[in-house]
Amino acid sequence: MMQNNPRSVSSWINTLSQIDIPILASTREHITKLRSNMECIDLRDLAFIIRHDPLLSLKMLKHQALRRSHQQTTDITSIEKVLLMIGVKEFFEIIRDCTILEEELSKNADILQTCLKTCARAYYAAQLAETMSKFRRDIDPKEIITAALLHETAEILLWLAAPGLMLKIRDTLKNNPEIRSKTTQKEVLGCTVNELQQELITHWHLPKIMLHLINESDTNDPRVILVLTSTSIARHTEWSWNQELNHIDTEKLARILHISNDEAHAIIVNTALKIAKEWRWYQIETAAARIIEY
Description:
Largest sheet: none
Radius of gyration: 19 Å
Number of strands: 0
Shape: globular
Helix content: 55-70%
């Protein structure tokens, strides 16, 4: 945790880029089980585990960016492709000394729960993005899935580096629902979380397509709209299923996929129910658990 709060994007990038990115305890548990039979590991099974953890996914893409050879002319934008490039043995070297999120925040239950919720929200958004991109027959849905999964990672890093400031933002928005989150973020941090996310992608030399797909100001590209809509749905259902923002999200999804509002709502609910079965991964109440409230 910091003594002095950065007030510029460059200062924040310097702070956040020095964090040793942790992974989830459930991720370590599942990977340990696979490692017991290392010779028979299927990369698809390993990728399935990694995609549950936005922090490990970020770690993998960072590692690939660092080792990228001059001969590699195309960006690697999916976890499966990263694993193919580095192999199983190198993967286990990467995670050998990883810190664990739950252990890092063991003395602060509130911050830990918030980080776990954010990880779960990112996974929900990625699953929504996958369903939506397949529905649209997108050329490369893996890019959209990865972008949705990474969309919240700057926020998680901020909770690790500056929990006091993030609590201030959360409390301000909770007590003043009419205030836009970006306005509060700029007042407290000196910039928005999305601006930090984009700068981190650039700083770490992650695939440029990721920078484009999470750019909240580019609302003309259908693929960007898809990522933003999936993350918006995941964020809003974290709090409620029957507010005006939920209905706006449903209508937006219906327009994107050219389906009825009822069909769009079914996609949102069914995806929430599907991932609710994996609640133990994050040890939090799932969005699906609140459906019954309305």
